Structure formats: C-alpha cells, structure tokens
Amino acid sequence: MRDDEPNVPEASVSRRAFLKGGAAATGALSSALLPETAEAQLPVATTPDARRTMVEMRVNGIPYRHEVPNHTTLLEFIRGDLKLTGAKAGCDRLQCGACTVIVNGRNIYSCTALAVEVSGAEVTTIEGLAKDNALHPLQQAFIEHSGYQCGFCTSGQILAAKAFLDRHPTPSEDDVRLAMSGNICRCSAYKRILESVMAASRAMPV
Amino acid sequence: MENFSYSRPATLRDATAQLGKEHGRVAIIAGGTDLLGEMKDELAAPARLVPVRHLREMQGVRTVGAGLRIGAATPLVDVVENRAVQEQAPLLAMAAVKVGTPAIRNMGTIGGNICQRPRCWYYRNNYPCFKHGGSACFSALGENDFHAILEGGPSFIVHPSDTAPALVALGASARIAGPGGRERIVPLDAFFVTPRQDVRRENVLQPDEILVELQVPNAPAGSRATYVKEMVRETWNFALCSVAAMVTLSNGVVSDVRIVMGGVAPVPYRALKAEAAIRGQRLTETTAAAAGAAAVEGARPLAKNGYKVPLTQATVKRALLSLA
C-alpha cells in the first residue's frame, strides 16, 4: 500500500534525526524506532506536506512520535514503523480480528483505523502484556489450556479478552462467547479459547 | 488506499468549511469503519478527510427535555452502555448492540452507522452500477440473494443499518450542519431516500453538510420494544431482515405501534400496513401473523431472494409476540 511512499524520505530528514548526528537517511530510519527520549521533545520542524502528519502515541507505556503519510493505518504504524509485529495483518477488512489492539481501553481492529486518528491515544499490543519476566494471566492461561493451534490469531484473541475482562472481571461463558465473537480462529480452537479466557478470569485479581 | 490531506478542524464551522460542493472529493471520517473499507477497495478516493470525533457537539449522550441528544460521532458502544439510552429509548440500545462485533462497536459511530453505504456486492466490487454513476443495477438480473424485496428499483440495494430502523421507530430527527453555521433538522423518516428519489445516494445529506446529532424522543410511557435481527450466522453480519417494533398496550389492546424493517428495502422501511393490522388488536398468534403478512404486502422478490418474504413475515410476527 505504501510502496510508493517511503516513510522517511531523504528530503525530509527530521530535526530530531539531525540532532542525533544522523543526517543520513539511515539515521532517520533507525532513530524512528527508538522510544522517545527527552531530547526528542525539542520542537520539530513541521512539514509543509498536508498529506503527512506527526503522529504521537504511547504504545505499551512508551511514547512514540513519528511522521507518517496520512493513509498509514494503525496496524502499518505499529508493525512497520514501530516494528511491533505481534498484531497480525489478516483480512485487512474488519473481518478476522488478527490485528486487534487496545486503544484507550477498548479493543479495536487496527487494520481499519488510521494512525493519525489514534494520535494522542494510549495503545496496548501483545508485546505490552508481560511484566518483567511474568506472563499476563491471559497469556499463561492460553498456554496452559492450549488456546491456540497455529497462533496467528492468538495476539488478537488475548487482547480482545483483556479489554473485555478489564471491564467485566467475572463473566459467564456466554458473556465471553459474545465478547470474543469478533475474533476468528481459522484452526477453530474456540472451545479452548473459551476455557483459556474463563481460566484467566478466575486467575486475574478482581 | 490513496493518500489524502488531513487536519483536525477546531470547530464544527471549521469542519463544514473544509467540505466543498462535490460528493466524494472530501470525506468526513468518524469511526472510519465503512469509509476506510471503501477507500481500500477504491470505491472512494477523497483528496481530504475531515475528522469530527474530537468535536464536542458531536460526542456523547445528553438528556434534553423529554428526549435524548446523541452526538453523531458517539461510538456505538457508548450508545449501548448509556444508562439514559437504556431507560429512555431501550429500542436503540437493543439495535446498536446487534451491530457487527464488540470491536466494530468500539470503533463505529451512530452517525456512521446510519450513513453507511450499501453492502451490495456489485457496488462493493466497483461494478459500474447506478451507485457509481452507471446506468444499471447488476443485481436485478444477477446475484440478488441479499437484495431488496420492497421499494426496490432502479437500484435494489438494501439499507444495512441496525440503528436506523430503531431510530425511525422512535421518531428521531437528524440535526444537520451546513456551511456558514446554517443548520436544519430533518425527521429521520424524511432523511433516507429511495433510489427513485436519488439513485446515487441513500440520504439527504449534501456534500457540504455534516450530521451533527440525533434527537431521539423518549419512548412513549408504558411502551415495550424489541429489535430482532436475522442473519446467516449468529453475529458479525448484516441483516437478512430486521424488525424494530415498539408497542403500547392499553387494557391488553395495542393502542400505539411502530414497526420498521431493515435489510429488506433501500431505506429503513416503515411497515404501515402491519401497524394498521395490529392497532386495536390483542397480541395473539393470529393477529401477529396477520401483521406479518401485512408487512410484506406489495413485496416483489427478485429471482434469488424470495426466502426473504416468509422470513420477514415470520420475524415481524415473532417480534410482536415477544411484546405480548
């Protein structure tokens, strides 16, 4: 989709990249992948191109700031720009749930949201769930109950479940079936996904 | 998806000022669930997007007088979970929770839900049909399994919204902002247009107008309501047919009734004949069946959607009986 528009064209090396001493395009590319530092709070020269926007968001607690073409989806931003590849590109049309991430506490399909529209938000991806070396209770439960087969849909399943359990800590099985109804598992591990989510709901502090 | 210009307008007035006079050149984005799909499929290629979710007057539910004001950019989840909606217009909450999936309801807005474009597969596959400015409806003689049985022609799309039938049944109106601070209020039963009125569009919104809010009168005291949606599977789909029904019983007799159907006509279809058939009657197997039959009076199914006639008939009957 964006092959025709490299994300950081050489012509618009940002001031941030310049200050880092990386006037070469490679400097701009690699600096974009780094979490925000105090230095990057300096004013950045704004681009005159109305078709590109500086996007800022906290992903898994880490602030990022990155200029992208406006048509960049949140999924492309997370996978391509931030190199967080846990969210998967599946159907690209709100029809599978593999791209699920949590934005401001709600699970959404990141394939059909624009990065510029999510600017300013708090985003959680699967990479943000484990704390130190401890897996999130949902991750642990999916392992213990084999809540996956090929694993492609799993990050989306776990994040949809997390957004739900954070609001409904003591659900019934039917509540969980409805809450998970927007995430397809092509291997059809649904029974074990349900078991995993129920087990996690019992393991998570209310 | 083509790239586009994008900047957040500070006010509603700034937003309308960005719109212009030509359909398609500039698009309003709220939840984006329909629009971005259209852009990915190259059905739409706006040069500019105007975001509206951050505008205060387009966000949230307020109680005003004997009704609700719902910002058009309010996510469906917030409509479903809102206490005032549940108490004052429960039919709307019942319909909104049937949209898509939890993630779609977290993203999609109520204004976007009633303004979404048709799901017809010819339209979505960019056939040069009436909706794209062409001179044919390919479904008429083609694959028309999911198309209109009522009010069809020259285009046979069906209106895909779940919230629209509920809002029409509740007697809601749309508050619409135009350029220079102009505003108009349009009752929803005049908001949607049939293909005979305008074959390219599904509603009266002009290119330089924004649907700002929905004004929803409280459901009548003592009324009961239900929204029944039939799909090819239990969830995550558009309606084969849906029925928003609201009745008021006095001494066991229907004194007031609204029946509005989705998925069967190019607009949310108010089944006036079904309403007339059940008004003044008790809700019984016989009277509900008669109302179901009246609901599909005048239906003209195409080659492959004949099943929708008995399906709709039965859905109206079941909806009414559930309110007895």
Written description of the protein model:
The complex is a heterodimer of chains A (206) and B (324). Helix content of chain A is 33%, strand content 13%. Chain A has eight helices and five strands. The N terminus of chain A is likely disordered. In chain A, strand 3 and strand 4 form a beta hairpin. Chain A has two domains: 119 residues, Ubiquitin-like (UB roll) (Roll); 67 residues, Orthogonal Bundle (DNA polymerase, domain 1), CATH 1.10.150.120. With 206 residues, chain A is an alpha+beta fold. Chain B is built from 14 helices and twelve strands. Helices cover 30% and strands 21% of the residues of chain B. Among the domains of chain B are: 104 residues, 2-Layer Sandwich (Uridine Diphospho-n-acetylenolpyruvylglucosamine Reductase, domain 3), CATH 3.30.465.10; 99 residues, CO dehydrogenase flavoprotein, C-terminal domain (Enolase-like, domain 1). In chain B, helix 5 runs antiparallel to helix 10, helix 12 packs antiparallel against helix 13 and helix 13 packs antiparallel against helix 14. Chain B is α+β, with helices and mostly antiparallel strands and 324 residues long. In chain B, a hairpin with a 6-residue loop joins strand 11 and strand 12. In chain B, the strands form three sheets. A five-stranded antiparallel beta sheet of chain B has the order 4-5-8-6-7. In chain B, strands 9-10-11-12 form a four-stranded antiparallel beta sheet, with helices on both faces. A three-stranded parallel beta sheet of chain B has the order 1-3-2, with no helix packed on it. The mean pLDDT of chain B is 97. Chains A and B meet through strand 4 and helix 6 of A and strand 1, helix 2 and helix 6 of B.
What is the fold's blueprint, element by element?
The complex is a heterodimer of chains A (206) and B (324).
Chain A: H1 15-19, H2 25-32, E1 52-59, E2 62-69, H3 74-81, E3 100-103, E4 106-109, H4 115-118, E5 122-124, H5 137-144, H6 154-167, H7 173-179, H8 190-203
Parallel strand pairs in A: 1-5
Antiparallel strand pairs in A: 1-2, 3-4, 3-5
Chain B: E1 5-6, H1 12-17, E2 26-29, H2 33-40, E3 48-51, E4 61-64, E5 67-71, H3 76-81, H4 83-88, H5 90-96, H6 102-107, H7 110-115, H8 121-124, H9 138-141, H10 163-169, E6 173-177, E7 183-187, H11 188-191, E8 210-217, E9 223-230, E10 241-250, E11 253-262, E12 269-270, H12 272-278, H13 285-295, H14 308-321
Parallel strand pairs in B: 1-3, 2-3
Antiparallel strand pairs in B: 4-5, 5-8, 6-7, 6-8, 9-10, 10-11, 11-12
Helix pairs in contact in B: 5-10, 12-13, 13-14
